[in-house]
Automatic annotation (TrEMBL):
One of its GO terms (biological process) is DNA-templated transcription. GO terms for cellular component: DNA-directed RNA polymerase complex. It comes from the Bacteria. Belongs to the RNA polymerase subunit omega family. This is DNA-directed RNA polymerase subunit omega. It catalyses: RNA(n) + a ribonucleoside 5'-triphosphate = RNA(n+1) + diphosphate. Coiled coil: none annotated. It is an enzyme of class 2 (transferase). It comes from Sulfuriroseicoccus oceanibius.
Amino acid sequence: MKPELVKEAAQVIPDPQILINVVSRRVRQLNSGRPQLVPSTGERLGIADIALLEIIHGKVTYDESIDPNL
């Protein structure tokens, strides 16, 4: 993962545990064939970097109101 993308995504999702969970879930979705939600930039990006970009651009969000203990 590119450190600058992690820093930018942390501005959107400040809790590191939630950010990791959102990125890992999105990586699984991308690996299973779901289309990416941001256009390719031309530079070689890993799947985690694509997930981070989707978070940065507001294409992937999370709901804080869901109880994680359920």
